[in-house]
Amino acid sequence: MFKALVLEQQEKKTLSSIKQLDVSDLPDGDVLVDVDYSSLNFKDGLAITGKGKIIRNFPMVPGIDFAGTVAHCETDTFKAGDKVILTGWGVGENHWGGMAGKARVKASQLVKMPEGLDSQKAMAIGTAGLTAMLCVMALEDAGVKPEDGEILVTGASGGVGSVAVNLLAKLDYKVVAVSGREQNTPLLESLGASRVLPRSQFTEKGRPLDKQFWAGAVDTVGSQLLANVLSQVNYGGTVAACGLAGGFDLPTTVMPFILRGVNLQGVDSVMCPLERRTAAWNRLVELVPASYYEQATRVVSLEEVAEQAEAITNGQVTGRVLVKIIGT
């Protein structure tokens, strides 16, 4: 038996509870993993609170990422004792996820733990960190270089944004962070931001083409904020867009694209091919400093997740929240 956070739906309301489950309760898969840590992402918050239509089938164990140890594998991909990471693939949405003592998934969905990481550090990075790294790689692929100018990171107090600030600074980019929480300015500066701008500076409807300020940007917010950022990007610059915390609409015009050659690059970590996500994890091992794990992460128990889910959907969570599973 093992402990799990289980989501159920009653009268169109999502209810969460801690339950004891058996391995036989788990869905199909060819790898059984003993979960050490999961993490709380914005998408998890929407699922657990029911504020977003994330889950279609109930009951569901949330947790879109986890790290742990292989207990059994029906293929020759992994062997018992291997340390592995899972992010994305619809796990925690349409297949039981990481907020449980055990998980059964497909071998093709797992990445072998890179040298230099353990389960706790892997989840301190987690889906948010992987997404941030993929955004940085998108900027690099587009030819955006440190000497080209400042890089803007929106939603910088959140999981993706805080890691993106740290990674870009480590790669010698000059990073400008955007946050709606002024109290987080010291943290963002310690992570590498050269300065921090208030979110309110970007939320009102702006001009189709504004002054050029940014060589590139990582956007986690979407909606009007992204539209304003696009209007301020330098000629030929690139925006890597990976989130919709502010909304899924994009009230912009074609002008930044056809008059300045601005590139809008979508970044998806859920279905990202194994080769690219493996490359991203290896880059993360090299780039994430030891100080990050203390500065921008904290650990909660499975029993605290529901409360933290409410907080993250209300924009009250800074950095990364790890969920300790091992030993529960």
Account of the 3D structure:
By secondary structure, the protein is an alpha/beta fold. It folds into two domains: 2-113 and 296-324, Medium-chain alcohol dehydrogenases, catalytic domain (Quinone Oxidoreductase, Chain A, domain 1), CATH 3.90.180.10; 127-266, NAD(P)-binding Rossmann-like Domain (Rossmann fold, 3-Layer(aba) Sandwich). The chain is built from ten helices and 15 strands. Strands 3, 4, 5, 6, 7, 14 and 15 form a seven-stranded mixed beta sheet that branches. A six-stranded parallel beta sheet has the order 10-9-8-11-12-13, sandwiched between helices. Helix 7 (255-259) links the parallel strand 12 (233-241) and strand 13 (263-266). Helix 2 (119-141) packs across helix 3. The longest helix is centred in the middle third of the chain and has 23 residues, at 119-141. The chain starts with a strand and ends with a strand. The mean pLDDT is 93.
Which CATH architecture of the largest domain is right?
A: Alpha-Beta Complex
Largest sheet: 7 strands, mixed
CATH superfamily name of the largest domain? Medium-chain alcohol dehydrogenases, catalytic domain
Radius of gyration: 20 Å
CATH class of the largest domain: Alpha Beta
**How many helices does DSSP assign?**
10
Q: What would the principal axes of the Cα set say about the shape?
A: globular
CATH topology of the largest domain: Quinone Oxidoreductase, Chain A, domain 1
Number of strands: 15
Number of domains: 2
N-C termini distance: 11 Å
Portion in helices: 25-40%
* Model regions low in confidence, pLDDT < 50 over at least 5 residues: none
Structural class: alpha/beta
Order of helices and strands: EEEHEEEEHEHEHEHEHEHEHHEHE
